[in-house]
Design brief:
The protein has no helices and 22 strands. It starts with a strand and ends with a strand. With 271 residues, it is mainly beta. The strands form six sheets. Strands 7, 8, 9, 10 and 11 form a five-stranded antiparallel beta sheet that branches. The protein has a four-stranded antiparallel beta sheet with strand order 3-4-5-6, with no helix packed on it. The protein has a four-stranded antiparallel beta sheet with strand order 12-13-14-15, with no helix packed on it.
């Protein structure tokens, strides 16, 4: 049985700048396979979402939502499902009008064979009652995550025409989280999962997983209207990329690094 753990990390002001894990606590183990978590603060509580299914691939995954007022005690808040669709990799965000939003992949399988996919979104005013998962973008898209900035959602969808090395990234924006307009296609070979954030006001920064060439993740920066990008290699493989800016302006990234065995890593990040 796969277990879901909450890692509470303290970024200590040490000379080496090394994050210190201060506790690890299991918060859920009711499903056979619990994976692909996201976490957000909403209405003075923590909300954690993840996929619940029989295995990593195949089956009809459901999106579990847990809630906790203190990070210690957790209880179920919602379970989102769609007949015949494997809902995967849910990501949480807060809309400008104060609702929670989940964006997730929606895959269709025959056994272990992928037959199609299209992203889904769902919304909630209270974290417990959710709209039905709604298809967005086009068949073959996978919108990895959205970040809201000045009333717009920005996110990257990736499409694959063959093996994973053929993946291409497309930057979109939306005013409602449902209808999206293409901004640009990134010139990133084998780019797929990507998170964008905003730093220094309106500057957009991206951390992108890559599956082509050396497989090293790239960091990109762009100014409005976000059509021209500058890219830099990180020298690391990063799966499930995410990053945040702390109040002191420092950037911390998280993701899965594979050499030596897959593991979760936290790391300082610069442009």
């Amino acid at each position: 049985m796969r277990l879901l753990s909450l890692f509470l990390c303290f970024v200590a002001a040490l000379e080496a700048g090394t994050p210190q894990i201060v506790s690890v606590r299991k918060i859920w183990d009711a499903g056979q396979h619990n994976a692909f978590t996201d976490l957000i603060r909403f209405h003075n509580a923590w909300y954690c979402t993840f996929r619940e299914s029989e295995a990593h691939v195949g089956g009809n995954g459901k999106l579990r939502v847990l809630v906790s007022s203190d990070g210690e005690q957790w209880k179920p808040a919602a379970l989102l499902a769609e007949d015949g669709v494997d809902l995967r990799d849910p990501k949480l965000s807060l809309t400008p009008d104060g609702r929670l939003m989940i964006v997730a992949g929606g895959s269709v399988y025959e056994g272990k064979t992928l037959k199609g996919r299209r992203p889904r979104v769902a919304f909630s005013k209270n974290g417990h009652d959710w709209t039905a998962p709604q298809p967005i973008l086009a068949e073959g898209d996978w919108l990895w995550r959205v970040t809201w900035h000045k009333g717009r959602a920005y996110g990257v969808s990736y499409r694959v025409s063959g093996d994973s090395s053929t993946a291409r990234d497309f930057l979109f924006s939306s005013v409602d989280g449902v209808h999206y307009k293409l901004i640009t296609e990134w010139d990133v070979s084998g780019g797929d999962e990507a998170t964008v954030r905003f730093v220094n006001g309106d500057e957009m920064m991206a951390l992108v997983r890559r599956e082509a060439d050396d497989g090293h993740a790239w960091i990109g920066t762009s100014r409005p209207p976000y059509k021209q990008w500058q890219w830099h290699a990180t020298g690391h493989r990063v799966g499930g990329p995410n990053f945040i800016e702390l109040p002191d302006g420092s950037l911390w990234a998280g993701g899965r690094e594979s050499p030596g065995g897959a593991k979760t890593v936290l790391a300082r990040m610069t442009p």
